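dumping these here so i dont lose them again. two proteins, back to back, each one seq then structure tokens. dont judge the mess
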Amino acid sequence: MTDYKPSTTIQGQPQTSKNYPRLQLLGQELITKFGLARTRREFRFESSIISTFGDLEISAFVNAKIQELGIPAKIQELGIPAKIQELGIPAKIQELGITGNPQDLAMEMEIIRREFAADGEKTGLGWHIDDCQLVSKKTPPTYSLERFIHLFDDWWLYISGARLRIPRWTMILYLSTEGSTKDFIGGRLRLADGTEYRPVAGLGILIDSREVHMVTPVNSGKRKSIVIKIY
């Protein structure tokens, strides 16, 4: 169980009975405290190829992209000397300059193929941190202490993922385009400081997983993406 020390900008009572506005304020604090805006990256990729990839190929692509984007070395350490031929990875993956074993790297990632549709069960996502829930407790927890992070006042982050830690990085690969004449309307990624990304097929986004974020509702059509959590 650990503590996070906020500044006075987020002290006091929640704005509403819901946690989302409070969590957005926390997100603004985290951006300032850890300089998260400086770690954001955008890049391009060939969406028609990526959409055909299995998990091993996606893991290999992510490994190469992390090195290309200059992400800190401790993340690159996830790569293990490759035996790509033995794994049977297609030649087009080798052309990306893979230096790690995608089968081993995949164990440190969670790959989610995500769709939001106007008529679907989910049209978007509220404010959240990956693999966490914001909970209110009047007294400190006495169970599963390794899953709780104290934020401020009675508010705690509860780590809900199986790995007992939040991801280090989150990568989003868009496979469809937002716009009135495109695949869907809505579905934009919004960060706590107001930064907003319009999904475009072939656009990749990499953010620190401590970023509080949301996805605006899809109002028509279907939004397709691949989300990779890197631990």
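---- next one ----
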Amino acid sequence: MEQGSTGVTGLRRLPPWILAVSAAILVLYVAFAATLWRLGLFDVPESGPDARIFAAVFGLLGGLFASILTFVGVLLKHSIDTRTLEITRDSEARLKLETSIRAVELLATDDGRETAPSQQAGALFALANLGQLGLAVALLNELWPAGRVSTAAATGVIDQALRVGSIGTQIGASRVLQANADLLRHTDRGILLPDSLDGEWHTEWPGGVRNILISALIDAIRYRPRSEWSTDDLSTLSLNFDQIRKLDPDPVIAAAAVLVTNVLLELRFLEDTDAFLTADGQRIQVGALRSEIASLVPDARINAAYSDRDLVESLRTSWETGDAPPPKTRAGRSTAQSVAGTRSGFTGETDLGAAGDSTASS
């Protein structure tokens, strides 16, 4: 029944140009046949050359008629196949929407109780994999500060949003990372970052995204005391920020990287100026890098954003005193409240699609 209805729907919704071409071909064929009839070529001779001419004309008309039918059939099949593909895509979009709604429902029970953090993280990853990156990031902004999602899961969702999300989603993910920079402190050492930021810097990302991310990186470093950073970690940080300074075409971002690198090198975690900083295949002499960065600091203080200069000075102060800043204060809602707001806000395909984000848009 579905195949039959699909075919009828395709016939009813044929593009006008197909109908026009088919009608024009039919009119030309009838006109050609009428011309042959008026010339007397349809008079059936009993024998002789005229009989052979009649047979040739009749064969010509039959061949033309068969060709016309074939051509019209191809046009009809193409139109019906196109319509069938549209219906399939609509069905897939509807199924994706229903799956997304079920994923959101996993964040809380029907009676408003919060589900396990692992289940909530799974729901966010499901939304991200379904292309609803904007929705996943919006929910993460509610769940992560409340401690309902682990930092590892949060950085995983942010990483996916940064890699394949639209510009708007990338900006949203960057802001979530910046707002929760104090939560990036790793339990063992260093800080826990999205994979796309761990030793990498993507200059193909929009400048607005990179500006937020450089601030988030500086802010995250502040929340781990100097005593908890090993020499290898500090060496890696110095080289990574120096790499940002070299790669990024934005002078504001490059200036922020210079200021951070200068603070790190001023720590003198390697006293031997002939020693080398090594990390991820990079190898730079400490003394040479320290001199180069020091020469860039005056201009960097002019070009860097005020907020980044303040973060760098706060980093310097906290590491000199040995005290990390206190965690950020938050007044977020509970998971159940967040999910309830999400459910009430998504009443149909249009609403969820607006909050979501197809990877193709990126």
